[in-house]
UniProtKB/TrEMBL annotation:
<keyword id="KW-0443">Lipid metabolism</keyword>
<keyword id="KW-0275">Fatty acid biosynthesis</keyword>
<feature type="transmembrane region" description="Helical">
    <location>
        <begin position="169"/>
        <end position="191"/>
    </location>
</feature>
<dbReference type="GO" id="GO:0009922">
    <property type="term" value="F:fatty acid elongase activity"/>
</dbReference>
<feature type="transmembrane region" description="Helical">
    <location>
        <begin position="137"/>
        <end position="157"/>
    </location>
</feature>
<keyword id="KW-0808">Transferase</keyword>
<keyword id="KW-0444">Lipid biosynthesis</keyword>
<keyword id="KW-1133">Transmembrane helix</keyword>
<dbReference type="GO" id="GO:0034626">
    <property type="term" value="P:fatty acid elongation, polyunsaturated fatty acid"/>
</dbReference>
<dbReference type="GO" id="GO:0005789">
    <property type="term" value="C:endoplasmic reticulum membrane"/>
</dbReference>
<dbReference type="InterPro" id="IPR002076">
    <property type="entry name" value="ELO_fam"/>
</dbReference>
<feature type="transmembrane region" description="Helical">
    <location>
        <begin position="45"/>
        <end position="62"/>
    </location>
</feature>
<dbReference type="GO" id="GO:0019367">
    <property type="term" value="P:fatty acid elongation, saturated fatty acid"/>
</dbReference>
<keyword id="KW-0472">Membrane</keyword>
<keyword id="KW-0812">Transmembrane</keyword>
<comment type="similarity">
    <text>Belongs to the ELO family.</text>
</comment>
<feature type="transmembrane region" description="Helical">
    <location>
        <begin position="211"/>
        <end position="232"/>
    </location>
</feature>
Length: 244
């Protein structure tokens, strides 16, 4: 497939411009990796298709098993994995993050729409945005990294059988909602700047996709928060499923 980018070929948002940078940061050729992502961005659809296919057939298979897989050890290990560094590896990390759902399916837990919709679409969008060298990319990745750092620690502790205050789970979901609000604002602001003719290294196609995705995430996370914590059910705590 032909490379679909770029509207702003001189963009350098992924090159290190900090007061201190490690040697491997300076040696990283972001334009080469962005070019590869652009030439192969359709690969993200293959990952998402395989992911949704696993969900469908995995649930069918698990319905034939009298007991779910326990997977306590592997689940705990998975949640304490070291986060990928910087933007490119952040994008690539979205593919192995699909394994989160493997644990949900094999343990016969309830798989909500928000969980697999978020996983499948965020992989495609982040891949596309990176190949576009979107100027909003650092906002997206920094917010996501921050939320995930707390979230995966929380789920790793739960997987180890450690009881965590319900208020912490609520705060994580609130932080996810705030992330979606901020993501929507940043994307709309970038759209405004670009519409006004101001220099903004992002394509309109990425902006349209970003606005649609962030708004849909906000709606779904808000619904999840309300139904999980204010649904009026005594078993509402059981609805606290992992969503990232």
């Amino acid at each position: 497939m032909d490379n679909f980018r770029l509207e702003s070929p001189q963009s350098s948002i992924y090159s290190p411009n900090y007061s201190f940078a490690f040697k491997f940061e300076n040696e990283h050729n972001y334009r080469k990796t962005a070019g590869w992502m652009g030439d192969n961005w359709h690969t993200s659809f293959y990952y998402s298709l395989a992911y949704v296919t696993f969900i469908f057939f995995g649930k069918i298979y698990m319905s034939t098993r009298p007991e779910p897989f326990r997977l306590k050890g592997p689940l705990a290990l998975w949640n304490v994995r070291i986060s990928s560094f910087w933007t490119w590896l952040f994008i690539l990390s979205k593919a192995p993050e699909l394994i989160d759902t493997v644990f949900v399916v094999l343990r016969k837990q309830k798989l909500i729409f928000l969980h697999w919709y978020h996983h499948a679409t965020v992989l495609i969008f982040t891949w596309y945005a990176y190949a576009d060298e979107a100027s909003t990319g650092r906002w997206y990745s920094t917010m996501n990294y921050s939320v995930h750092a707390v979230m995966y620690t929380y789920y790793a502790l739960r997987a180890c059988g450690i009881k965590i205050p319900r208020q912490l789970a609520m705060s994580i979901t609130i932080s996810q909602i705030l992330q979606m609000i901020m993501g929507t604002y940043v994307t709309i602001y970038a759209y405004y700047c670009k519409s006004m003719g101001q220099p903004c290294g992002i394509s309109f196609s990425t902006l349209y996709a970003g606005i649609a995705i962030y708004i849909s995430y906000f709606i779904l996370f808000a619904q999840f928060f309300i139904s999980s914590y204010f649904g009026g059910s005594k078993s509402s705590s059981k609805k606290e499923k992992k969503v990232q």
